[in-house]
Structure formats: C-alpha cells, structure tokens
Amino acid sequence: GESVGLHLPTLSVQEGDNSIINCAYSNSASDYFIWYKQESGKGPQFIIDIRSNMDKRQGQRVTVLLNKTVKHLSLQIAATQPGDSAVYFCAENSGSNYQLIWGAGTKLIIKP
Amino acid sequence: NAGVTQTPKFQVLKTGQSMTLQCAQDMNHEYMSWYRQDPGMGLRLIHYSVGAGITDQGEVPNGYNVSRSTTEDFPLRLLSAAPSQTSVYFCASSYSGGQADSPLHFGNGTRLTVT
Question: Is residue B95 less than 8 Å (CB to CB) from chain A?
Fold first, then answer.
C-alpha cells in the first residue's frame, strides 16, 4: 500500500550545525510533498513544500530535496537553533484526493 | 486572527460515553479535516469535508461522525467511546485540502482519554 516513512526516529544535532531529516515514500504517483514541524503540545505547522516537477526548493534556513529516482525526500535545516527542537513529519499527496499520507515523524534534538 | 480553534483541550471519558470535539476556523477555508495522532505513528485522517454540507471518510472513520453545517465549524462526534479512541485529535483546515500552495493549518489538539 501507499506509505511514507522516515529513516531515523530521533536525530541529535549540535547547535549551529546543519540538520538533515530524511523521508522515503512509496507512491510514485505522488505529485506534492510537504514538511511539517510539531512542537510539544501544539499542532503541526507547515514548513515547506515541493511539487514533483522540482528537485529542490529553498526557504528561510530550510531546503527540501526531492529524488524521484529513489523516492526520497529530505529536509535540511541550516545552522540549527534550540527553537528547531520538534518532531518533523513528511507527508505526500497523490493529487487524486484530499488525503495526505503522513510519515511517523522524526524527533530533532538540539545539543547545546 | 485565531486560526483553527479546538475545544476542549483535555477530556476524560468512560467507555460508552459520547461527546463532541469542537473545531472552528476563521480563515474562510473550504476544506476541514480531523486527524488522530497516536504515539510512534503519523497522523491518520478520520473524516474530512470539502465544503458546507459535504463530508467524506478518511483512513480511520469507524466510531466517529461528522457534519458540516457551516463553513466555519466541523465538529467530531464520538457516539460510544472506547479505550482504542484514546488519542490526540487534531483539526486542520485549508483552502483546498492540502494541495500544492494550500497547506493545512492545524489546531492545538484535544487530548482524549477513554477509561
């Protein structure tokens, strides 16, 4: 079946270093991918998205890379800060319906 | 701008009790949805609505009912609560259902415990 998964459930990064969070997807028909950040006690918050006709998209301190050949998605956070501590979810939308498929999440821990 | 507002924030129910989780948004979004979040799992879609008067089932609809009488409100009803429904529930809205350039806006969740 369709699935979106993450390679690492927990990622520890030194403050100031770059973080890379990975995600694998299985539906080659997916045409839209999104990253959300969820802080403790709050709902997920949109970070950045990318369409399937793109390989890379940059935002403020974040970059999403899409490799359709190996069905892999990654979120890069530059100069990680304490405020980046959260659980990060990737999600995909095949475009044919209104249902996003979510990964299980990766917890990002920032070491001082 | 309040965004998506969910009430209550916490709720404890006994098995068999019923209740309604409230969700309201003030962004004039046509699309609204309910998710449940369980430890170690991603969000799972319960029900969604693409506009007033229209609802549809998501991945895990059993045990839940919804209605959409207005654009602003999308309540989730548990008819007879079961321990398996212990979870954190999130309501989300967007202009067009999480499609490109229309990301979901989430509320802060309702933590439900069924004993």
Answer: no
H helices of B1-115, where? none
In chain B, the DSSP E strands lie at: 4-7, 10-13, 19-25, 31-37, 43-51, 54-57, 64-66, 76-78, 87-94, 105-106, 110-114
All residues of chain B having their beta carbon less than 8 Å from the beta carbon of residue A46 are 103-105
Closest Cα to residue B85, out of B21, B6, B24?
B21
Is A50's pLDDT higher than 60? yes
Q: Summarize pLDDT for B79-115 with one digit per residue, the tens.
A: 999 999 999 999 999 998 767 778 999 999 999 999 9
Which amino acid appears at position B19 of this protein? M
Q: For residue B12, which of B83, B92, B66 has the smallest C-alpha distance? A: B83
pLDDT, tens digit (0-9, with 9 covering 90-100), for B60-82: 999 999 999 999 999 999 999 99
* Candidates A41, A89, A100; nearest CB to B98: A100
Question: What is the rounded CA–CA span in Å between residue A23 and residue A90?
Answer: 7
Whole-angstrom Cα Rg for chain B = 13
